[in-house]
Amino acid sequence: MTTTPRLAPEPTHGTARRRAPWVRSLVALLHHKVAVAGLVVLAVLVVCALFGEQLAPYPANAVDISRALQPPSTAHPFGTDDLGRDVMSRVILAASVSLQVSVVSVTIALVVGVLLGLVAGYFGGWPDTVVMRVADVMFAFPVMLLAIAIVAVLGPGLTTAMIAIGVVYVPIFARVTRASVLSVREEPYVRAAVSLGAHPGRVIVRHVLPNVSAPIIVQTSLSLAFAILSEAALSFLGLGVQPPAPSWGRMLFDAKAFLDQAWWMGVFPGLAVFVTVLALNLVGDALRDVLDVRKTVND
Amino acid sequence: MAFVLRRVGHSLVVLLGVTVVVFALVHLVPGDPVRIAMGTRYDPDVYAALREASGLDRPLLEQYVAYLGSALTGDLGVSFRSGEPVTTILLSRLPATVSLAVAGLVVALVVAFPLGVYSALHHGKASDVIVRIVSQVGVSVPDFWMAMLLILLFSSTLGWLPPSGYVPLTEDPVEWARRVAMPAVTLGLVAGSIMTRYIRSSVLEVLGADHVRTAESKGLRERVVLGRHVVRNALVPVLTIVGVQLATMLGGVIVVEVVFAWPGLGRLVLDAVAARDYPVVQGAVLLVAAMFLLVNLVVDLLYARVDPRIKVSR
Question: Which of A195, A197, B48, B294 lies at 20 to 30 Å from B283 by C-alpha?
Fold first, then answer.
């Protein structure tokens, strides 16, 4: 590792040195047993999301009333629902919807929130005041309530759920980013870049953003977990994914009426939500450990 | 005093912002909210009356000022659906929500306080690891799923508790307790898991502080050190998270209220959204946000009282 940069040609040299902290974090993460467990679960989910059609033993909406409410068996490992649909197939197929909603909504929150946080933290003054006051106002609403209010305006559906969850998490990203920018802004390397006459955009992208990325990465992982929960809750309330498309939240809603007769209808979709959220939280916590360790090493 | 005024002023400014958002809700709805709310029950006379009452034809700023003015006097308009004043509807739902939130908070504290302190004192040992795993599980469980599992166990299987429904505390305290048990445990376990993690890390931090080492080296008994020097100091930052959890339970427990057919504010919002009863949605959202701000304000003021350093640093 110590000799490679010297031997390598100039361009590779630069790339290798820039990537080093990332590689180190990744290696540390892969040595974190809990994180690996979480990552394995997430990998399984991604496979389900991508190849659900091939993996699921039955189509999502193969209605067969004669096989309604059957308990788990070899033919239907998770049993069947009130319309005779295979619960396991629907749990597998719903993975793509859940992941899609959470990834899209967190991306919205990430892009908008980080951008606002960078501007607010770096420039200060009135942009900072405006962004932070708006964030304060948004923080005054409980997350689910704000999401539901947005759905009330835009009407229920998949796209609305993504927008609603995305908007709700914008202020969190803005706050996290701003707080880190405030501490990085006064660092000598940032001041040096500014005094060399670098354009603010360049300073932000090249010097500030890479150094505030750690808390943002941790926040992203934790927000993905919350987004999965929020999507499930919205769909449970009938405000998210619309039937007959399979979704874990909606399956739980349907299960509620049959709780006495068919426990499997409610247990398995809920387990899917729980395991997914747990995996994301574990990875998020591990990332926090790993990235903090790197920070103290560098300090 | 200056701190108190500044903090109250900040809350008021945010509350003003909240009213703008709540006011904007109705105006962001594509189309005519009154027409949409009436749906298939359209009647030209009723429509004209509601339209007139809603004031939607006047200029936006004038409407906002009027809305703000009447909101200040406690008039939040009338429901599109029932014609009842929104304030009356909100007040009728408040006891259910508040009694559930308080019961949930009690469960959360009973769970989180001993577990958090114990876990910190046994830092790194097997019992600490177990507490951390359990709290991680509690944070990750969807509350409505836990609610369904509780119903499955305590109602469907054991038959100990009614699966859902509400009886006012003032009417029949025993029956209220039987009915609040499952929703309160659902809320309390989720909130308690979050609090456990905060209490644990807070106690851990204080355990490493100089004054604790001094107290120990003075030869004080462990109980005294723990009670007087560790726990008391550790609880100060925990106050904030307790406040946030209480505020969340006061306004954000829509899903749990739905599962347990608990007639609180959360269900009210959901029903009003479904019926497109915008004045009720507005009123409920405003009330919840106001309670949220109030709880956080009280917590911050308490916090400054317990820890005078706060006033200086802000």
Answer: B48
